[in-house]
Design a protein that fits this description.
Blueprint (H helix, E strand, L loop, with lengths): L7 H8 L10 E3 L8 E5 L2 E10 L6 H14 L5 E10 L5 H17 L3 E9 L7 E11 L14 E5 L4 H10 L1 H4 L5 H9 L7 H10 L3 E4 L4 H13 L2 E5 L7 H10 L12 E5 L2 H10 L4 E8 L4 E4 L4 E3 L9 H4 L1
Parallel strand pairs: 4-5, 9-12
Antiparallel strand pairs: 1-2, 2-3, 3-6, 4-6, 7-10, 7-11, 8-10, 9-11, 12-13
Helix pairs in contact: 2-3, 2-7, 4-6, 4-9, 6-9
Length: 327
Amino acid sequence: MEIGKVPNDILKQLILGKIKNKRKEILIRPKVGEDCCAVDFGEYVCVLSSDPITGAVNEVGRLAVHISCNDVASCGVEPLGLLVTILAPPGTTEKELDKVMGDLCETADSLNVDIIGGHTEITSAVNRFVLITTAVGRILKEKLVSTSGARPGDALVLTKTAGLEGTAIIALDKEEELRNQIEKSLIARAKGFVKDISVVKEGIIAGEFGVSAMHDVTEGGVLGAVWEVAEASSLGVEVYFEKIPVDPATDAISKFYRINPLKLISSGCMIISCGDGIGLVERLKENGILATVIGKVTENKECRLVFNDHVEVINQPESDELYKVVG
């Protein structure tokens, strides 16, 4: 199999299909497109999500905090705590470990999230830092949002711009290679995206506004995320290519490496399904968050990317474009 997340058809067959669902307290269970689980605790629901950082060399501490907290935020939940497992390769120095832990703590503190436990180990099983984080939050049961709640006719709203995380990772890890190919100002801008990959603020705002479904955009990029919303909700989507915002820095890096920014890992972006898309966009903009209506949810199960002169099918996400550059 290719590097990256296991393809969804194989995931269904070999992983999800073997899980036995017995406990009635589990309100959200493993499913394609659902990145969180939810456990019933009466008036409140406990929401948890776990994810690794494997595709980055630099800023792994910051990325590890955001990736799991973003998943919890996609349920409209403010993350409260974080469990962190650090796997470091042989030869790791105390200075390197100190840097990773410092970034973890600084980023968690910026989100008002406590690091509440985990594990740290030097192991020959890895050749660079691998961080696995599990975020925990809680919310009133009636306010819980899932990926699978999209409704026909909903607007699809994208926050920020496509490919944020992948752009930052490439710029940070490949800066030397890019220096003579792309304007310095664009490289600096791309590296700065690492500070914009939290969706906690928009997740909480959207949850309070009232939305049908949310999904943070990770591996597979924007097109992968809208496919997963459709799959989880047993519906279709129609996405308009010209409406999807792509930052000039992302565009330049994508053209240099000949990768598709719409299929590039995009933590920092959220796909939101909402009856009042224009109203949500205005609410997010009032809070300093760029948001754009990029399409709609449809009754049929077709996933379509619409151009000015033709239409393409949006298929299940394959190996992320990032791995063509840093794999």
